[in-house]
Amino acid sequence: MNRAGDDPGGRKLPDDLARLLHDVRGPLNSLTMHLEVLKRTVLGDAIAEDSLRTVHDQLARLTAMLPAAFAVVALEPTETARIDLRAVVDTALERAGGVVEVGAGPWPDVVGDAMLLTLAVVELLRNAVEATPAGGPPPQVSAIPAGERTLLRVRDWGPGLKTTDPKLLIKLMHTTKAGHRGLGLVTVERIARLHHGEIRFESPGPGTLVTLALPTAK
Q1: Is the pTM of this model over 0.85?
Q2: Nearest residue to 72 (alpha-carbon basis) of 181, 196, 183
Q3: Which end of the chain is less crowded, N or C, counting CB atoms within 10 A of the terminal residue's CB?
């Protein structure tokens, strides 16, 4: 689904990254053109035609992945400050769509960039809302202090996860949902790392629990 969150932050690439992306696209375009020429030389060779189709598909995939990867890498904090996490969640709820229950406070303050944290929470809430079956209980979002970290927890009662291994779940442009570009969790992980935090996945019976660990403000 081509959502605002699928173009992380909707931000223009910095000039240096934009130039690098332009430079990388040059060889890819050349490869694609020469591949079209090669196709005419293997007509009737089923194995060679199949291999060329695979090369063509992988080049198209790489061409789509590069700007997505650059957009995620371009995410950087613009201002780090003490943040009211509940206010971030309230803003994210307006953009996430659907019904989400908000846990009772008190909500700890965290340290970070409000725009990036809002983007991360929007992605987590959207995923939870989309995982919620019709007529099922709405997802919940809450936060609890855990020493020097605050744990933002998003819980849904959807179909759950086949794995909780982040290495298998967080892949660029990897998604099982039709129409999605597969940038949501990659974006959340990038934002978590920029805040010296992490993202965790659990399958607590039915549904999924995703935890975003962030530094607690002192």
Answers
A1: no
A2: 183
A3: C
Report the alpha-carbon distance of residue 121 to residue 173 in Å, rounded.
Answer: 19
**Per-position DSSP letters for 22-44, written without gaps between them:** HHHHHHHHHHHHHHHHHHTTSTT
The separation between CA 217 and the C-alpha centre of its own chain, rounded to angstroms, equals 25
One DSSP character per residue, 150-203 reads EEEEEEE-SS--S---HHHH--TT--SSTT--S-HHHHHHHHHHHTT-EEEEE-
The amino acid that residue 28 corresponds to is L
Mean pLDDT (the chain, rounded):
88
CA separation (Å) from 189 to 27, 171, 172, 186?
30, 10, 11, 5
**CATH fit for domain 81-215, picks 3.30.565.10, 3.40.50.300, 3.40.47.10, 3.30.470.30:** 3.30.565.10
pLDDT tens per residue, range 195-204: 999 999 999 8
d(CA 120, CA 190): 9
